[in-house]
Design a protein that fits this description.
Elements (H helix, E strand, L loop, with lengths): L2 H14 L5 H4 L6 H19 L26 H22 L1
């Protein structure tokens, strides 16, 4: 499957399963979506270098904007990149709604 399709599916899952629709995303106006994306991307980078059990530098997780229960990493770096990209898409949409 193409990466863009994976990202679209994840964004759809975030919306329908988790309930993170545009109204919800609009409440995150302090960089939370970007910070969460950075955490997943950093994990994927660590996994690309060190394998599926690798962890990102501990400092990166200080960016995690929400309760730890919402940090749901995968051992699959592609899955973590897809989550990161979907979070970035949500932030792009949020910013575009601002005009």
């Amino acid at each position: 499957m193409l990466s863009i399709q994976l990202i679209e599916q994840e964004r759809q899952r975030q919306t329908t399963v988790e309930g993170f629709d545009s109204d919800h995303d609009d409440t995150h106006n302090s960089g939370e979506l970007v910070n969460a994306a950075a955490c997943y991307a950093a994990l994927a980078q660590a996994q690309a270098v060190g394998g599926p059990d690798a962890v990102p530098h501990p400092a990166i997780l200080t960016l995690w904007p929400w309760d730890k229960e919402w940090w749901k990493p995968s051992q699959d770096p592609v899955r973590n990149l897809v989550k990161a990209a979907a979070l970035l898409a949500a932030e792009i949409d949020r910013l575009q709604r601002l005009g």
